[in-house]
Amino acid sequence: MEDFLTQLFSGQQYNKKNFFLIAGPCVVESESLIMEVAEKVFDICKRFGIPYIFKSSYRKANRTSNNSFTGIGDEKAMQLLKKVNEKFSIPVTTDIHTAEEAALGAQYADVLQIPAFLCRQTDLLIAAAKTGKIINVKKGQFVSGEAMKFALDKINKAGNNKVILTERGNSFGYTDLVVDYRNIPIMKKHGAPVVMDCTHSLQHPNQSSGVTGGNPQMIETIAKAAIATGADGLFIETHPHPSKALSDGANMLQLDLLEDLLKKLVAVRKVIVE
Fold this sequence. Notes:
Helices cover 37% and strands 18% of the residues. The chain contains nine helices and 13 strands. The chain has an eight-stranded parallel β-barrel, surrounded by six helices. The chain is of the alpha/beta class. It is globular, with a radius of gyration of 17 Å.
């Protein structure tokens, strides 16, 4: 587990005692947005000794409504992700949705993210594995921590042992999610580092309005509990103005609240590891 993370964070003096952070706006909206977020989060993480992966989706394929924003164009968004990587010397990650997208994503991203709804898609997992990139598989809302060993096995058997598993809650009725923290130690037993998605786990999906709701007031609670139960990393989508975001604004963390949150989480982690 530590080998590929150490290599990934080689330019950031990887501190194995700290958690790592995957963070950024939900989707690439503009160059100015992702550069602003990357710069601010990178500065905070550097001061707190938190290894950092910048995240933003180059395209949103899974939207509630046909009228929802999906992206600024695949190639343009990918080029901007690469620009973040080069300017700040930090790894970047983005979603891929089909086996055909794996090769494209691998040209620009250091970590390929498999969306939760697609965690059982064998052809997608194998194609991602064959790129040789680190693969972050989000646990489906309909899947147990135990069952994620099958996703991991598909990638491993395709010749790739660089896998991260991410917990993001389970469906609770039609319009809510609940986090079962047992999934964190259960998935760690599979031999992969485990991340807690602190923002998507607070979604209120399938709203009659066609726009996904959320409960960002609980991000701190979710994150603290994840650190306490052994999460290796945290996933937090953040935006300077969530109410104006073009995707998932209802559950993103306001950017100027991130520093105080990470300060608290570093303190919690220090208690846990010592």
